[in-house]
Specification:
Organism: Streptomyces griseoviridis
CATH class of the largest domain: Alpha Beta
Shape: globular
Radius of gyration: 24 Å
CATH architecture of the largest domain: 3-Layer(aba) Sandwich
Number of strands: 25
Helix content: 25-40%
GO molecular function: oxidoreductase activity, acting on the aldehyde or oxo group of donors, NAD or NADP as acceptor
Strand content: 15-25%
Number of helices: 16
Protein name: Aldehyde dehydrogenase
Keywords: Oxidoreductase
Distance between the termini: 81 Å
Pfam families: Aldedh
CATH topology of the largest domain: Aldehyde Dehydrogenase, Chain A, domain 1
């Protein structure tokens, strides 16, 4: 008779170790940042609000809306919303500045832009702290945003003579309407390059965040004589002035497709030069692939700033026969993500925490994402990963309503927005496919994107499939980004309208060349790749 041996007791996964009790890093409260703004640029900041800049003067006016930091719900400065009539006056004043600035010698424009870059460098950490407080960037990402703006414009300063040779400034100022996620490396970078090329520049401060950071940068530029206009207000109220005014020489827009479509209609009707960067569902495809250690290493980078970037990859399309290997590579990597308050430390004098993501832009966006995830699961999506909130780094009792823990869903239903639109938050969706045709269809679900990547071992397979992926940039096993310096940038399909930018193309987009010149870009009458 066989002897029965007792089985080992079932094992259980140990509970995650909760983070230590944290405190706020010394000198990083909103009151600290605001006091430093008042000291550095008293012309632009008042006791509890910022001013608008137009007609070369800082001006009060407009109803200031309340605002809070997504980091912890702390009240911060809200945008002073101008009315449409005042915005029209600001545009006309910018045209006067433009007519004078376009005749300033290039050497002097270079000197003034260089002086602005030196000032931005001097106040780098304050600009970064404002980005943390206003839009929730982790410290590393915030400093990188400032550095990319400064370093990128210095590249243009060094090479501007060649880029403007045989070209002239536009007939009117450049109007910039940008999203809140990259106030420095996208918006301030563009403003300074546009001014370097001989144009006065107008910027609508983003409604959702970045107001104080952009105001400080604008104040530093205005001190050096850069013809910059900063106005705040609702897009609907200011669009007639900032998009439809005959004084405008070019409209530069970064944002969603719905708003972008309205801007595109307006500039097409008026024949205005335009650069319209719109959202697209950037995808990462995996087909006949085996270098899983390389993929594991890149996964945390794909969650930088909570995927709140135009070049984030929220969709992964996986060959079904590789799904088990994909999970073995993906799940351990996504479980390492560090989430929490970007300024919370164990001791007040500790260095800034190393985090992958903090909050999303506001509590409303967080609630929307949670609802979309819940709805997708109820309709059949399979949760592959949900981060444990107990491991996040928060201050005791802080407001966490704007935080979304990373989530990964398999086969989100077609009825879900997560299936066809960019979530702009830390939510990945995985789609399984069996054929190359299905792979391409899943990667092209949004009718055009800014970037894409295909991981495949065979270079010939990549060379054959990549041209069929509707993205401006397609990486081979590595992520693509917006790029700096001489790297070009644009989008295919509905993700981009108007002139492409990056490198010399950014200068060409905001200057006039030979008669009959066709700029590379997506236009109603033609599409021309660089």
């Amino acid at each position: 008779m066989a002897t029965l041996t007792p089985t080992d007791p079932p094992t259980s996964t140990p509970a995650p170790t909760p983070p230590p009790t944290l405190t706020l890093k010394a000198g990083t409260a909103w009151s600290d940042a605001w006091s430093r703004c008042l000291a550095v640029a008293p012309e632009a900041f008042r006791d509890d609000h910022v001013l608008n800049l137009w007609g070369a003067a800082w001006r009060p006016g407009g109803r200031t809306l309340p605002a809070v930091s997504p980091v912890d719900g702390t009240p911060v400065a809200g945008p002073p919303r101008l009315d449409g009539d005042t915005a029209h006056r600001a545009v006309r004043a910018a045209l006067d500045q433009h007519r004078a600035w376009r005749h300033v010698p290039l050497a002097e424009r270079r000197a003034r832009v260089t002086a602005t870059l030196d000032a931005l460098t001097e106040h780098r950490d304050l600009l970064a702290l404002l980005l943390v407080r206003e839009i929730g960037k982790p410290w590393r990402s915030a400093r990188a945003d400032v550095d990319r703006a400064v370093d990128g414009v210095r590249w243009y300063v060094d090479g501007i003579e060649r880029m403007v040779a045989g070209r002239a400034p536009l007939d009117g100022p450049v109007s910039n309407i940008a999203s809140w996620n990259y106030p420095m490396s996208v918006l301030v970078h563009s403003l300074l390059v546009q001014a370097l090329a001989g144009n006065a520049v107008i910027a609508k401060t983003p409604t959702d965040g970045g107001l104080a950071c952009l105001t400080l940068a604008g104040a530093l530029a205005a001190r050096e004589g850069i013809p910059v206009t900063l106005v705040s207000g609702g897009g609907g109220e200011l669009s007639r002035a900032l998009v439809r005014s005959p004084e405008i020489g070019c409209v530069s827009f970064v944002g969603g497709r719905d708003t972008g479509a309205a801007v595109a209609t307006a500039v097409a009707d008026l024949g205005t030069r335009h650069v319209l960067e719109q959202e697209g569902l950037n995808t990462w495809g995996i087909w006949n692939y085996s270098d899983w250690p390389a993929f594991t290493a890149v996964v945390p980078r794909l969650f930088d700033y909570g995927k709140q970037r135009c070049t984030a990859y929220p969709r992964i399309v996986v060959q079904r026969r590789l799904f088990d290997a994909f999970l073995a590579a993906y799940l351990p990597a996504v479980r390492t993500l560090r989430v929490g308050h970007p300024l919370a430390v164990e001791h007040p004098d500790d260095p800034y925490p190393e985090l992958d993501l903090g909050p999303v832009i506001n509590a409303a966006k967080a609630a929307e994402l949670r609802a979309q995830v819940t709805d997708a699961v109820e309709r059949g999506a399979v949760p592959l990963h949900r981060a444990d909130p107990a491991t996040a780094r928060f201050l005791p009792g802080q407001d966490t309503s704007a935080y979304v823990q990373p989530v990964t869903l398999l086969n989100s239903p077609p009825s879900s927005p997560l299936h066809h639109a960019e979530p702009f938050g830390p939510v990945d969706t995985v789609v399984l496919v069996d054929t190359e045709a299905e792979l391409l269809a899943a990667m092209n679900a949004s009718n055009g994107a800014l970037v894409a990547t295909l991981s495949t071992d065979d270079r010939a397979t990549f060379d054959r499939l990549a041209p069929q992926i509707r993205a401006f940039k397609v990486g081979h096993g590595s992520p693509r980004s917006r790029g700096d310096r001489d790297e070009l940038f644009g989008g295919l399909g509905a993700s981009w309208r108007g002139a492409f930018v990056g490198g010399e193309l950014l200068v060409r987009a905001v200057t006039r060349g030979p008669r009959g010149e066709r700029l590379p870009g997506n236009f109603p009458e033609y599409h021309l790749m660089p």
